[in-house]
């Protein structure tokens, strides 16, 4: 592989480094903040439109300080306005990787709310959930913080962002430093609060506890998917051998430390995880916990052996949990079923 000689892009610099670069290009230190604000907060990606910067600096940006590092190489728009786009990044020893991001506009009529975006944290995924197309090829590499930020920047250019779910491809807790760094940039740039950001994990207990100790400024969702140990070991291979009780205990720890309730995600696989026995065991597992269980009816994928659950099974499952006193909304997926990869979890956003 040849050395990458392209200039570093905007979000590859830390704030001080960016100031220094801007000064080198003829601007003043404070232009660094102006530039980041215009790009992330306003979604301006055309350097010539950044009129609050001096003309010489604007001219220099495309060749000396590009606003983006990657290139969009595919985009799918569904009927409900959901957009999935792939961004290709070249840096990294493994060469090019294509990263998936989803932008979901609010479906509420006359709503002034912005969209929800779903970002990826790894190229490929090492967790290997057997119902997820993204896990089939394993991990290619962790994303860098700026590659995570760039997904927000590109999504912001499509319209205002109200919420963010870190539920795209990858396991955020296995690339946590980059995720934290990216979210800090995004919170500042988009002025988005902790409760508007949800990070989803399969729930590595030690990592969850550590994250809870670090004053996390986001909400947590744990992908549980089944209340039965043997089945979870098979469905979520990276968690094989990790007792479900330990995952739940780590979720309890999160709640104690942060005061924020955990959401549990449960993908309903037709005739695999949507049976009355599953509903009963799940209710027993979560009884007494302050938590929401998002029920996500599975979207079949051509390469995987799982089925969409019947509507009666989904509704019966929900009724059982509700009768047991649990909060269990059904999250039907948004568009893009045909092309969704990990997207099983994206339904959570609305
Ligand atoms: S569902 Fe999420 S954690 Fe599981 S393999 Fe897919 S991307 Fe990874």
Q: What would you say about this model in short?
A:
The protein has 10 helices and 11 strands. It has helices at residues 15-24, 30-41, 55-64, 145-156, 176-190, 205-213, 229-235, 244-258, 276-286, 311-323; strands at 71-77, 83-89, 97-104, 115-118, 122-124, 139-142, 161-166, 197-201, 219-223, 262-268, 291-297. The strands form 2 sheets. The protein has a 9-stranded mixed β-sheet with strand order 1-2-3-4-7-8-9-10-11, covered by helices on one side.
Verbal overview:
It is a single chain. With 350 residues, the chain is of the alpha/beta class. It folds into two domains: 10-64, DNA polymerase, domain 1 (Orthogonal Bundle); 71-349, Aldolase class I (TIM Barrel, Alpha-Beta Barrel), CATH 3.20.20. Helices cover 33% and strands 18% of the residues. A nine-stranded mixed sheet has the order 1-2-3-4-7-8-9-10-11, covered by helices on one side. Strands 5-6 form a two-stranded antiparallel sheet. The longest helix has 15 residues, at 176-190. The radius of gyration is 21 Å and the shape is elongated. The structure holds iron/sulfur cluster. Iron/sulfur cluster binds next to loops.
The CATH H-level superfamily of the largest domain is: Aldolase class I
What oligomeric state best describes the polypeptide chains here? single chain
Number of strands: 11
The overall pLDDT, averaged over residues, is 90
Bound ligands, each once: iron/sulfur cluster
Distance from N terminus to C terminus (CA atoms, Å) equals: 43 Å
Task: Give the fraction of residues assigned to helices.
Answer: 25-40%
- The CATH class of the largest domain: Alpha Beta
Largest sheet: 9 strands, mixed
CATH architecture of the largest domain: Alpha-Beta Barrel
> Helix/strand/pairing class, anyone?
alpha/beta
Kindly identify the CATH topology of the largest domain.
TIM Barrel
Label the overall shape.
Answer: elongated
Q: Poorly predicted ranges (pLDDT <50, ≥5 residues)?
A: 343-350
């Amino acid at each position: 592989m040849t050395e990458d000689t392209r200039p570093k892009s905007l979000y590859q610099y830390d704030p001080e480094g960016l100031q220094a670069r801007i000064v080198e290009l003829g601007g003043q230190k404070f232009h660094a903040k102006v530039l980041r604000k215009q790009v992330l907060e306003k979604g301006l990606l055309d350097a010539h439109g950044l009129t609050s910067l001096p003309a010489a600096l604007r001219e220099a940006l495309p060749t000396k300080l590009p606003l983006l590092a990657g290139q969009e190489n595919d985009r799918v728009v569904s009927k409900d306005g959901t957009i999935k786009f792939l961004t290709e990044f070249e840096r990294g020893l493994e060469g090019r990787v294509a990263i998936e991001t989803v932008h979901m506009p609010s479906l509420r009529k006359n709503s002034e709310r912005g969209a929800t975006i779903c970002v990826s944290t790894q190229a490929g995924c090492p967790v290997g959930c057997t119902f997820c197309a993204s896990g089939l090829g394993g991990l290619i590499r962790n994303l860098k913080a700026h590659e995570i930020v760039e997904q927000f920047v590109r999504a912001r250019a499509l319209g205002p962002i109200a919420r963010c779910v870190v539920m795209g491809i990858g396991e955020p807790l296995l690339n946590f430093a980059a995720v934290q760094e990216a979210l800090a940039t995004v919170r500042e740039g988009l002025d988005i609060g902790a409760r508007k950001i949800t990070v989803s994990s399969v729930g590595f207990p030690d990592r969850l506890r550590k994250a809870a100790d670090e004053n996390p400024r986001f909400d947590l969702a744990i992908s549980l998917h089944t209340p039965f140990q043997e089945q979870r070991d098979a469905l979520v291979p990276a968690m094989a051998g990790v007792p479900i009780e330990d995952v739940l205990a780590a979720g309890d720890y999160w709640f104690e430390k942060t005061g924020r309730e955990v959401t549990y995600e449960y993908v309903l696989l037709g005739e695999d995880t949507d049976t009355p026995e599953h509903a009963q065991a799940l209710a027993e597992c979560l009884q007494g916990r302050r938590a929401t269980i998002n029920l996500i009816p599975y979207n079949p994928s051509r390469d995987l052996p799982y089925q969409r659950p019947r509507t009666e099974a989904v509704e019966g499952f929900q009724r059982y949990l509700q009768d047991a006193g649990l909060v269990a909304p059904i999250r039907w997926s948004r568009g893009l079923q045909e092309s969704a990869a990990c997207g099983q979890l994206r339904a959570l956003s609305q």
